[in-house]
Write a structure and sequence with these properties.
alpha/beta, Cobalt-precorrin-4 Transmethylase, domain 1, five-stranded mixed β-sheet, 7 helices, 18% strand
């Protein structure tokens, strides 16, 4: 079996339990050597065959996986972060489909959430932003019409901008078409790595801060006033809010607040509810 595994943002302890187990069991690992730290490969066993994909074209990667699969070996294709985001796994899966090979995908911790943890901040905040836009600037890989940074900035939501640290000045210019110059911004280089660097500022200052710090790649750009950790509290733990697991305090009770509306569904902490 072939497993596409998200290695996480860098810290070897941020790989999932399943991802670590698959690495420990793997006979062959094809890994993104330019992005996955060697420390993550420490979970592999002695004798595991390792292939650095940084210098390999798609056909070479598929050939290694196909040959190992045909021999009945356990294969891990190790991608940085979460493989579903800028992981180029689509063309690999299509090639495996064409060859009739089975595979699974194991998600990983993305660098944009590791960057939020490094600040630390919540990317969504009541009254500020309930939307996170994940995008990148056009480069050697073009961006489809209508998905450019300047156009997406019109939503004034929180933005997580990948693969764009090399052109920060132009990125900030695009964002300032819709966001005020004093909007909060951050650059986190190598989130969760030992050499992690965190810069906080505004759209007016962050490019200069990053330039002074020598940041030009492997960095996440986060934008939006949710980063200030200000604004309204959520209703989730409000004593005056009723949901499927808790009744609101009655007027005159310990909190003296009015009873809230009963949600049709139970509200619970976390993104999947």
């Amino acid at each position: 079996m072939i497993h596409f595994v998200g290695a996480g943002p860098g810290d070897p302890e941020l790989i999932t339990v399943r991802g670590r187990r698959l690495l420990e069991e793997a006979d062959v690992v094809v890994y993104a050597g330019s992005l996955v730290p060697r420390a993550v490969l420490s979970w592999t066993r002695s004798g595991c065959e390792l292939h650095d994909s940084a210098g390999m074209a798609l056909g070479e990667q598929v050939e290694v996986m196909s040959r190992a699969h045909a021999a009945g070996k356990a294969v891990v294709r190790l991608h940085t972060g979460d493989p579903s985001l800028y992981g180029a796994i689509g063309e690999q899966m299509r090639a495996l489909d064409a060859g009739g090979m089975e595979y699974t995908v194991v998600p990983g911790v993305s660098s944009f959430v590791a960057a939020a943890a490094a600040l630390p901040t919540e990317l969504t905040a009541p009254g500020v932003s309930q939307t996170v836009i994940i995008t990148r600037r056009a480069g050697r890989t073009p961006v489809p019409a209508g998905q450019d940074v300047a156009g997406l900035a019109a939503h004034r939501a929180t933005m997580a901008i990948f693969l764009s640290a090399g052109d920060l000045d132009a990125t900030m210019d695009d964002l300032r078409r819709h966001y005020p110059a004093e909007t909060a911004a951050a650059v986190v280089q190598r989130a969760s790595w030992p050499e992690q660097l965190v810069l906080r500022g505004t759209l007016a200052t962050i490019a200069g801060q990053a330039r002074e710090a020598g940041v030009d790649r492997t960095a996440m750009i986060l934008v939006g006033d949710a980063l200030r950790n200000e604004g309204e509290a959520s209703l989730l733990y409000d004593a005056g809010f009723t949901h499927g697991y808790r009744r609101a305090e009655e007027p005159g009770g310990p909190d003296g607040g009015p009873a809230g509306q009963v949600d049709g569904q139970a509200d619970a902490a976390g993104e999947d509810h």
